[in-house]
């Protein structure tokens, strides 16, 4: 399998199963893909920058992408850099530790 194929599989899954990102003005990009290890790095940004559930969207992508795409074994999700970067970096770790989000299961 080629890197392009792995990236395409990840992009297709996200476009088809997490349309909220783009529908709400956000964006995602596949920053890195390793065919040997099956590891993929996804960056989200745009309107995700100010979205209160962006950390939970990131968590859902991290957990669901490897279970839904056979050739992907591990996913790292980060905030995109530059002028479209997310503005809530300190909230991600804090929100992942909150009990309210322990069983968070978004509709995508």
TrEMBL record:
Name of the protein in its database record? NifU family protein
Domain NIF system FeS cluster assembly NifU C-terminal positions:
19-75
| Name of one Pfam family that matches | NifU
Q: Which domain of life is it from?
A: Archaea
